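Sharing a chain and its predicted structure for anyone who wants a worked example. Both blocks are below, sequence first, tokens second.
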Amino acid sequence: MNLPSENTMLKAIAERDSSFDDRFYYAVITTGVFCKPSCSSRTAKPENIRFYLTPEIAMQAGYRPCKRCKPLQVEDQMAIQLARYIEKHVEDKLTLDTLSIVAGTTPSKLQRLFKQSLGLSPKEYQDALRLHRFKHRLKNSKSVTEAIFSAGFGSISRIYGQTSRNIGMSPKAYKSGGVGESISYSSCRTKIGLMMLAATDKGVCFIQFGDSKKLLLKGLINEFPQAKLTQSKANKSAPLNDWQFAIEQHLSNNAPRPDLPLDIRGTVFQTKVWQFLISIKAGKTLSYTELATELGNPKAARAVASACAKNRIAVLIPCHRILRGDGSLGGYRWGLERKQALLDQELAQELAQKLEQAQ
């Protein structure tokens, strides 16, 4: 199924035509919310509207479901409500039996519906929230142990089991070049040039820009020389195609930066740098020295710059937000014009949101 024409969709939104519900969904970049065409909310300006075929694509692009028109199915709404419950009780011990009582359903049905809607189990979601809290508290705690327990983890071994998968990998694993793995890739034109996106079954592992598909594919092969590479085809790799669409919408149509699963590969230090980059608020910049200081090692500015230069996932790991100490752009492996364009876009989006909130 394809989207109706833009004029048809804009007309349906203006008339709040319920006959178009489930045929498309629209999002508003200034509010970060997506709706059904029949939503009774105030109609947004056409230039601030983005269109999506499914709620899943809209959420992958970073938008939240509207609380007024409730664009998700009943099962999805239940999953969202349960996710919010887990967020409020992230430090508690939450079993499937406990959550099924909250949701008013059986443990097996709860597990199935939650994973079907959000892509991971309730336990995986709670662990992800705890890990996110751990990373945040690690920067403000007196010790790693304090951060571990304040984030809700019951033991030191559990967090180290998590961090081995999410915060870094050994140099030996890093040098393996993707041996034994399958990687799908695709490319598209964006506002800042030709982009190639690649992903493993864990998430996005490669986003780069270049002048030709041939050169971009050569770069992918150089990064993962031992992996099996497969070009994505329509309907054969739906998540990858949806992710590409979400990123293209972000770059070309000012949609929010999508929150996609990442398969981050690097040394422990490199990955710490990349994880911190993800936490930097859009529109904000830091110098290499400031970032090194935030990581607890003010003298590691050169190592930070090197980690930024070796980042293979552009945009989603926003190394473009790091500048020289004098405020100049510094380096960027995909060109300073692209770096400036990304910074200008983020600043414009931040100003638009402030103006919308002030109205």
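Comments welcome. DSSP finds 15 helices and ten strands in the chain.
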